Amino acid sequence: MTRIDDVVADRRGWRAMLGPLERVSEGRAWGYYLLLPSLFLVLAVVLYPTLWGMVLSFREMRLNRIDLGTGFVGLRHYADLIDDPIFWLSLKNTVIWVVGAVVGELALGLAAALVLNRELPGFKFLGVLVLLPWFLPNVVAGHMWALMLDPRLGVINDMLVNVGILDSYRAWFADPNAALFAVLMVEIWHGFPFFALLMLAGLKAIPADLYEAASIDGARAIQKFWFVTLPQLKMIIAATVILRVIGLVNSPDILLILTGGGPGRATQVLSLYAFIKANKEFNFGYASAISVVMFVLLMAFAYGYVKLSNAMKE
Fold it and tell me: HSE on the CB side for 113, CA within 13 Å?
């Protein structure tokens, strides 16, 4: 009986110790406690650097001008942006760059997805080939196209001259009127598989009954596409466009590899301008101000696009 009493006493002791924990786990706050480690990681890795970057835009921070100090300058950097013609040129180039790339990648990706959605022999292998550009690192893709568009040895120039489209070889990246167009073509080629993959997944998820009902009602192929396919892909299109716009605005690597923002400033976008200010001129305060403007523009675009597309009204 003594051993039994000891066991009962031990159980009562454990219950007394775990009683508060049991009461907490039964409450609604338990989920928040479990999320605390992840929340701390997000705050440390995402929120803190973002807020520090915003704070930096209100301070002087030039590594090559230590004598200026790191004092608070208020809105001076933002006032300088308003009077900076390079900023406005970069903003215009950014709009052209993002709109042109997203429209081209979306159109080409949707067309590729529609073709690959057909159950024909060899189309699965063709789908893997379509994704190859997306698998290539930006550095590899950029240098590959730089060689293909070379004004002396480029195979693209050779083909265009042989078919009579061009009279002579053209220096695509040295021509201010053609440089942005040439880089856009490279970006569309490199980025359209992103849309193709997600659009294909969306097409596979559309019930066949919808197309059968449309056929019974006498709908043609273009009507099925417009009234069945596109509405079913609305959420995917909205998500992919927003993600791609964010990626294009924040990643100037293709531009940096192919043109470096030139010739002149014909291909300079906001992200590349901020990169140059931070890593070549070491003006981190001004670069942070440009980054904050980009952040605000992206937030405004994402909110406005979702509202206008009605993607969330389901």
Answer: 26
CA-CA distance, 12 to 19, in Å (whole number)?
10
Whether the model pTM is above 0.85? no
CA dist 144 and 86 (Å) reads 30
Averaged pLDDT, 294-313: 81
Q: What are the pLDDT digits (tens) for 43-86? A: 888 888 888 888 888 988 887 777 666 778 888 999 999 999 99
How wide is the angle at C-alpha 131 spanned by C-alphas 203 and 94, nearest 5°? 90
Neighbouring residues of 138: CB distance < 8 A, sequence distance ≥ 6: 190, 251, 253, 254, 257
CATH number of 76-309: 1.10.3720.10
| Long-range Cβ contact pairs of 16-22 (< 8 A, separation 24 or more) | none
Q: Write down the domain spans for the chain.
A: 2-56, 76-309
